[in-house]
Structure formats: C-alpha cells, structure tokens
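Hi support team,

I've been running sequence recovery on a batch of backbones for a student project. Most finish fine, but this one hangs at about 90% for roughly twenty minutes before it completes. I'm not sure whether the input is malformed or the queue is just slow. I've pasted the structure tokens below so you can try to reproduce it. Let me know if you need the job ID as well.

Thanks,
M.K.
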C-alpha cells in the first residue's frame, strides 16, 4: 500500500514516438493553459464587483494548483521513458500519477467554493450547500484512491467496490449541483442565466470523463498490465490505453478547471452592477 501511495501506473508499455509526443504535448498544453488561466483570473478580479472577487480568487488558485501538478506530471512522464530503437521504452522509473490525485483532493473542493461564491446565495443556504459539497468532494477522492492504486488482478473486485463507494458522493455532487443551479436560475440576472445553463452542461460532460477513465484502468487485463504480470501493450492500459487515459484526463481537467474558471468570470461579470451600468451606458 505504501508503494501504491507513492506511485501509480508503474508498468509502462512501449510507445511510438507519436504516442509519446502526443501525451507530452498535451501535458505541455495543459501547463500553459492552466498558467494562462491563472494570470487571466487574477487580473480579471478588477473588472467585477467586490462581492464576486473571492470567486475569481479561488478560481485562480484552482488553475495555479493544477498548473504546478501538471508540470510535475510532465516531469515524471519524461523520467518514465527513454528513447530507444526508434521508439520510447519504460526507463524503469515509475510514472508518478499520484500528482493528479494530489491535485484533485485540493482543487475539486475549491471548484465547489468558486461556484457557490459566484451564485451569491443567501448566507445560510450557501453555507449549507458548500459544506455538503466539500465533504462529498473529499469523500469522492478519498474513496476512489484506494481502488486506483490496486494493481493485483486478483483484487479486481476490491477496486470495483472502492469505485462504487466513490461513485456515491460523485453522483450526489452532480445531483446537488444540477438541482441547485436550476433552482437558482430565476434569482439570477438574465445575462447570467444562459451562462449558468452552460456551466451545468460543462460540469456534467467533463466530470463524466473521470469515472469512465477509472473503469477503463480497472479491468482485470489492465490490472495485470499495471502489476507487470501481463504484456502491458496488450492490456487496456497498454500503449493506446496509456495515451488515451492521459490525454482524456488532461482535456477534462483543462475544461473543468480553466474553462470553468472563464465561465465563472463571465457569470461574475454579467452579475456585476458596474459592468451592467457600463454596458447600459454604451448602448444608450
């Protein structure tokens, strides 16, 4: 378990130059996207009303944390492979995918904070909603991780159990967010309603990637490849599996963090009185 705590995905299949570079490039793109989003969100705080600035501050922190962790993920990716015989082979150093879980345990609760902050719900309701969401988010990550580090095919059923337990708070969060966002639409300015409807879809679509990837990495064949007891290239986490999962996670994270952060800014801007007054003056 200690080894699993430190390292995920230790069995690395051989990759072609194209496959290796595809993952490396998406990691590089993710670092740049998160970094640029952080700069934008921190600077954009001056363009919204004071009551919405905490939402942008938290959103900027989310992408800053993600930027750091993706930098470390990319660094680990470089160390896990070496160029040989016209392709990339495992160097013997494990690919440390724990950085991704470290990122999630910090950023997922903060995503809940930034969303509740920009909604500007009554204090009692906001506190109750935020408490439920943060606790559920922490449980979702904490329950999913023990299953993620399992690499013994004989323990496949344990991974399924942990995945099932993690799915309970996962679907609870989606249900609460969908219903609360829907219920809050009538109390939001008209300019913000459409953006909140888009935010609902972004949450639903991007979050759906994570359990799918978790399931793909947990088949008996995948666990055999991870444990090194089968040819990793033949498993679902073989060459195509590794590439697909890493690219899928990166795209989902960019959308769920950087893209969602821009939506938070647009919602805050639409709800800001000084912005509304300026637009009204400009169209007068």
């Amino acid at each position: 378990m200690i080894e699993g705590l430190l390292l995920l995905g230790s069995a690395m299949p051989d990759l072609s130059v194209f496959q290796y570079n595809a993952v490396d490039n998406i990691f590089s793109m993710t670092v740049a996207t998160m970094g640029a989003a952080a700069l934008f969100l921190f600077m954009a705080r001056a363009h919204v009303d004071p009551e919405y600035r905490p939402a942008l501050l938290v959103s900027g922190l989310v992408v800053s944390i993600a930027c750091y962790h993706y930098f470390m993920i990319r660094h680990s990716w470089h160390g896990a492979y070496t160029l040989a015989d016209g392709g990339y082979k495992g160097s013997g150093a494990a690919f440390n995918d724990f950085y991704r879980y470290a990122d999630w345990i910090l950023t997922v609760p903060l995503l809940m904070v930034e969303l509740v902050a920009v909604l500007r719900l009554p204090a009692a309701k906001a506190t109750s909603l935020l408490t439920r969401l943060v606790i559920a988010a922490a449980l979702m990550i904490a329950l999913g991780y023990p299953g993620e580090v399992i690499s013994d095919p004989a323990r496949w059923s344990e991974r399924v159990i942990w995945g099932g337990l993690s799915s309970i708070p996962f679907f609870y969060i989606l249900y609460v967010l969908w219903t609360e966002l829907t219920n809050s639409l009538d109390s939001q300015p008209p300019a913000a309603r459409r953006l909140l409807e888009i935010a609902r879809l972004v949450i639903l679509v991007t979050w759906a990637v994570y359990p799918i990837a978790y399931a793909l990495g947990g088949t008996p064949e995948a666990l055999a490849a991870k444990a090194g007891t089968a040819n990793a290239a033949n498993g679902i986490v073989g060459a195509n599996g590794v590439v697909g999962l890493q690219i899928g996670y990166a795209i989902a994270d960019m959308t769920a963090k950087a893209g969602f952060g821009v939506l938070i800014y647009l919602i805050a801007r639409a709800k800001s009185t000084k912005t509304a007054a300026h637009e009204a003056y400009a169209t007068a």
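--
Follow-up from support: It reproduced on our side and the slowdown came from queue contention, not your input. The first helix runs from residue 2 to 6. No action needed from you.
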